[in-house]
């Protein structure tokens, strides 16, 4: 798995060759004792099985992302990784019917990096499975001219959903959900990549 402070180690060639797309998997929780790395690691493995993507796991807990427009070496590096991505998946818990503040700061710091790219979600929480966080995030990404895909992967009552090995107890169902979302990201990612290559988004 790509570490928090490293650039992606594998580069696809999506430009007209049918090669893999670059997918950035963003771990949105930074709290001590967080659960997020567990579903993120599982999902990254599902991405690798899909064979349609090169995956870059971006862990916000390892980065200094300010809540202002003051930049840092970390934000510069993060911006490069986001700009290189053809699609994104945000792994997030639900906090008080929404999503973590550090994730909001990281999203808001950037703009052009999100434009005309697809976004999916892997969420976890209590009975809602984190879906209320997704509903908030859909509005945020729409404002940034990103395209959120319909399907999500969610885990309700998450402490009971994973084994000690980090694999969901209902592995087959979870893998099917991941594949469904990845298929949508692949279609949108390639379509939007090709469209941006023909005409940059926002150009006349």
Automatic annotation (TrEMBL):
Which InterPro entries has this protein been placed in?
Flavoprotein-like_sf, FMN_Rdtase-like_dom, NAD(P)H-dep_reductase
The domain of life is Bacteria
The EC designation for this entry is 1.-.-.-
| Domain NADPH-dependent FMN reductase-like span(s) in chain numbering | 22-157
UniProt entry keywords in alphabetical sequence = Oxidoreductase
Gene Ontology MF terms in the entry: oxidoreductase activity
Q: Which SUPFAM superfamilies match?
A: Flavoproteins
What is the protein name stated in its UniProt record? Answer: NADPH-dependent FMN reductase
**What is the species listed in this Swiss-Prot or TrEMBL entry?**
Prauserella salsuginis
């Amino acid at each position: 798995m790509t570490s928090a402070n490293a650039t992606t180690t594998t580069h696809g060639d999506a430009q007209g060759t049918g090669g893999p797309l670059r997918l950035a998997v963003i771990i949105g929780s930074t709290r001590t004792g967080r659960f997020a790395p567990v579903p993120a690691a599982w999902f990254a493995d599902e991405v690798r099985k899909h064979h349609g993507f090169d995956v870059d796991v971006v862990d916000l807990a390892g980065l200094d992302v300010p809540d202002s427009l003051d930049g840092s070496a970390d934000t510069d590096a993060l911006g490069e990784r986001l700009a290189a991505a053809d699609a994104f998946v945000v792994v997030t818990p639900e906090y008080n019917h929404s999503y973590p503040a550090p994730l909001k700061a990281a999203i808001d710091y950037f703009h052009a990096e999100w434009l005309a790219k697809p976004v999916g979600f892997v969420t976890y929480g209590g009975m809602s499975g984190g879906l209320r966080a997704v509903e908030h995030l859909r509005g945020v990404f729409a404002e940034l001219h990103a395209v959120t895909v319909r399907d999500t992967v969610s885990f309700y009552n998450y402490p009971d959903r994973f084994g000690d090995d980090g694999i969901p107890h209902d592995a087959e169902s979870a893998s099917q959900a991941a594949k469904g979302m990845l298929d949508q990201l692949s279609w949108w990612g390639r379509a939007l990549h090709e469209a941006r290559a023909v005409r940059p988004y926002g150009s006349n």
